[in-house]
Automatic annotation (TrEMBL):
Native source organism of the sequence: Flavobacterium panici
PROSITE patterns for this protein: HTH_CROC1 (PS50943)
A Pfam family this chain is assigned to: HTH_3
Keywords, alphabetical: DNA-binding
Ribosomal protein recorded as keyword: no
Residues of the HTH cro/C1-type domain: 14-67
Protein name per UniProt: Helix-turn-helix transcriptional regulator
Length: 132
C-alpha cells in the first residue's frame, strides 16, 4: 500500500472556490485583468505562478493559503461551524434576534398605504374623466 499523497491541484482549488463564491470565469478574469480563456487554463493546471495566485486570491476574497490548502471537507466544516456558531448557541434569549416592532403591524401599515395610493389614483382618474 502506498502512503504517498497526490499533489494538490491549485487550479482545481481555484475553480471550486470560484464556484462556491458564485463567480463566473469571466468575472474573475475581469477582476485580475486577464481573459476568460486564461482563467480556464489556470483552473486546469496543477500549479500557478505565485504572483497570479496572489491576484486570484485577492479577487476571490481568500488567502493564498486558503487556495493552497482547500479541501471539500474544510468547506463543510466551515459551514457547519458557521451555522452552529451563528444559531443561538443554545441561548433562546439571544438579544440579536429580537424585533423592536411587530412585523405584522408593518405589513398592515404597508397594505393600508398601498390601498390609499390606489384610492388616490382612482379619484384622480375620475376627475380626468369628468373633465372630458
Amino acid at each position: 500500500m502506498s502512503t504517498e499523497t497526490r499533489p494538490r491541484n491549485i487550479g482545481r482549488n481555484i475553480s471550486r472556490i470560484r464556484e462556491l463564491r458564485g463567480m463566473k470565469q469571466g468575472a474573475l478574469a475581469d477582476a485580475i485583468g486577464t481573459s476568460q480563456q486564461t482563467i480556464s487554463s489556470i483552473e486546469t493546471s496543477e500549479t500557478v505562478d505565485f504572483e497570479k495566485l496572489v491576484q486570484i486570491a485577492k479577487a476571490l476574497g481568500v488567502t493564498v493559503e486558503a487556495i493552497e490548502n482547500f479541501t471539500e471537507e474544510s468547506v463543510f466544516n466551515f459551514f457547519n461551524n458557521f451555522y452552529d456558531n451563528s444559531a443561538n448557541n443554545g441561548n433562546l434569549n439571544n438579544s440579536n434576534n429580537h424585533c423592536t416592532f411587530n412585523p405584522l403591524d408593518k405589513v398592515v401599515e404597508l397594505y393600508e398605504r398601498l390601498v390609499q395610493a390606489e384610492k388616490d389614483k382612482v379619484e384622480y382618474l375620475e376627475k380626468l374623466m369628468k373633465l372630458k
